[in-house]
Write a structure and sequence with these properties.
single chain, 11 strands, 14% helix, Porin
């Protein structure tokens, strides 16, 4: 190949290379280069300060301040609760229900005597003088009822008790065994002390304009109750000595009493009581010659008892 041919080949190759250069080097011809990601330094994250929970103290508070904040929050919650509730208007009515009770008691008989003792039958005209009675135990039970409403201070009671105040020996006159059983019907009055009101029941009536109306029935509960009573006593007396005995049954007389009752609960109470009995006994028996002989005298006795009563 001559020099002219070589020149032509070289020129052709230069033109081809020149046309291929824009594809390999775009920056040289003004083509934009895509941005390359630049590594960034990590930014430290600051923790957000804790938000106080309602009703919980802030961590920066002292114990005293935290307690005050808690009380203030509780007060606000209570005020919001009251604001949400309707206003209540209550009409109070006092009720006085009736009351029934049963009781048992025991105690001591003292200071008894039979006075103005006179002989009867073929012993008529014989003055036997006053005879003292021995101290003795006494026991019995009772059942009673207090009325309701405005008469709740008044009640009735039936009781029965037994005692053995033996006739003491006086000089050469021997003593005798005496047993007296008493059945009494009493009228009782009481006072009420140390009272408080107890809710019997509550009945809703109506509700309008944000106000609720109700009726509350209440009754008194009085722990301390002094009482006194008087009634008819029916006495059954039996006097015996050396195998002989005389009796006088269904003798009317007086039974008087006074006491105080303390309620531990509305159902159970403890009581202490004094009783006084009076009756005229007229007892006789057949004499050795077929005639009747006996005695007549005024019976008096005092009793102090205590017991437990159950109320319903």
């Amino acid at each position: 190949m001559n020099d002219a041919g070589k020149m032509a080949v070289h020129g052709t190759m230069l033109m081809v290379l020149w046309s291929l250069m824009p594809m390999g080097s775009p920056v040289a011809h003004g083509q934009p280069v895509p941005p390359q990601p630049v590594p960034m330094e990590p930014v430290p994250i600051q923790p957000a300060p804790p938000q106080p929970v309602p009703g919980q103290p802030s961590p920066t508070m002292t114990p005293t301040e935290a307690e005050r904040a808690r009380e203030a929050e509780q007060l606000k919650q209570a005020e919001r609760a009251r604001a949400a509730e309707p206003e209540v208007k209550t009409e109070r009515i006092q009720v006085r229900p009736s009351e029934t009770y049963v009781a048992g008691f025991g105690g001591y008989t003292f200071g008894g005597k039979i006075s103005d003792v006179e002989g009867t039958g073929f012993l008529s005209g014989l003055n036997l003088n006053d005879r003292d009675l021995a101290d003795s135990g006494v026991y019995g039970g009772k059942v009673g009822h207090f009325f309701g409403d405005r008469m709740d201070w008044l009640g009735v009671e039936m009781e029965a008790f037994n005692t053995t105040p033996h006739v003491e020996q006086q000089g050469l006159v021997p003593g005798s065994h005496l047993r007296v059983t008493t059945l009494a019907f009493n009228l009782i009055g009481r006072l009420k002390l140390g009272c408080e009101m107890k809710t019997e029941r509550t009945e809703p009536r109506s509700r309008r304009e944000g106000i609720r109306y109700e009726t509350r029935y209440e009754r008194e509960f009085c722990r301390l109750q002094p009482y006194a009573g008087v009634g008819l006593g029916v006495f059954f007396a039996n006097l015996s000595n050396n195998g002989n005995s005389v009796s006088d049954n269904a003798v009317p007389g007086l039974n008087a009493l006074a006491g105080v009752r303390y309620y531990f609960t509305e159902r159970v109470a403890l009581f202490a009581e004094y009783k006084y009995n009076y009756a005229v006994f007229d007892a006789s028996t057949s004499g050795p010659f077929g005639g009747a002989a006996g005695f007549k005298g005024d019976y008096q006795a005092n009793h102090v008892v205590g017991g437990l009563s159950f109320h319903f």
